[in-house]
Specification:
Elements (H helix, E strand, L loop, with lengths): L1 E9 L3 H12 L4 E4 L13 E2 L1 H9 L3 H5 L4 E3 L1 E6 L2 E7 L10 E3 L2 H12 L5 E4 L3 E8 L2 E9 L2 E12 L6 H5 L11 E9 L7 E7 L2 E8 L2 E9 L2 H7 L3
Parallel strand pairs: 1-2, 1-11, 2-8
Antiparallel strand pairs: 3-7, 4-7, 5-6, 9-10, 10-11, 12-15, 13-14, 14-15
Helix pairs in contact: 1-4
Length: about 240
């Protein structure tokens, strides 16, 4: 099976979905390939920043966006030496929506996908994984993929890689990554919760470690941040 589009986008995360929507709104023919059958993945980032909020508003999606389960972070504080210190205050930003919205990313992606599919030039192919590139005339000319009906080829004038940190598209294009050392380990895990909760970037800190909490419906998503190398030590203790 072989077909054509103007722009092929590999990956249906926030970058790919927003790009596809913007191009489709401009009348560009877009085909987006997403290897999964849905967007329900943990952990995805939940933060929607003020500039993105402005974009959603400008696209006419504000009312639908704010109907999603979300919380607003206007400032962030933590306790230091017995007093509360505010280290981020988004209200100082010159933006129409000066806060960070905490929205489960799968809800945001479902919204963007639904809106994009209302555009006549947008096509979303779920359960369709890019497996390689097509080449012609010294350039990338599209992608090979594996879909529900088997392998296929999608020719495109422009191919965009939005398939994340382990990008197949990036590898196929021969683009090299640069890795930077990080001095800490991070654990993501969930804890059940009864009732409402407020978001806090760093509600609990101690020498060399910290906890971050993202409240979701019925549970908290926890980030434990510790010194590099503590992951195997904690696992060895049976935690």
């Amino acid at each position: 099976m072989a077909d054509e589009t103007t722009c092929a986008i590999v990956g249906g995360g926030p970058a790919g979905m927003v790009l596809g929507l913007l191009l489709a709104r401009a009348g560009v023919q877009v085909t987006l390939l997403e290897k999964h059958g849905d967007f329900l993945r943990d952990f995805r980032g939940d933060t929607v920043h003020p500039t993105t909020l402005r974009l959603l508003d400008e696209l006419g999606l504000w009312e639908r966006f704010t109907s999603l389960p979300h919380s607003e972070v206007h400032r962030a504080s933590f306790e230091s030496n017995g007093r509360l210190v505010t280290y981020v205050d988004f209200s100082r930003l010159r933006q129409p929506h000066p806060f960070v919205a905490m929205v489960p990313q799968w809800d945001l992606l479902n919204l963007l996908a639904e809106v994009a599919q209302g555009e006549p030039t947008f096509t979303l192919r779920m359960k369709t994984e890019a497996t390689g590139f097509l080449h012609g005339g010294g350039r990338v000319a599209g992608v090979r993929y594996q879909g529900p009906d088997g392998p296929g080829e999608l020719r495109a004038e422009l191919t965009v890689a939005c398939d994340g940190r382990w990008s197949i598209a990036r590898r196929e294009a021969g683009l090299k990554t640069r890795e930077y050392p990080v001095g800490f380990d991070v654990w993501w895990f969930q804890l059940p919760r009864d009732g409402d909760a407020e978001f806090s970037f760093l509600p609990r800190t101690a020498p060399g470690k910290a906890l971050g909490v993202i409240p979701r419906e019925g549970y908290d998503q926890i980030a434990y941040i510790g010194p590099k190398g503590t992951d195997p030590e904690l696992r060895a203790k049976g935690i």
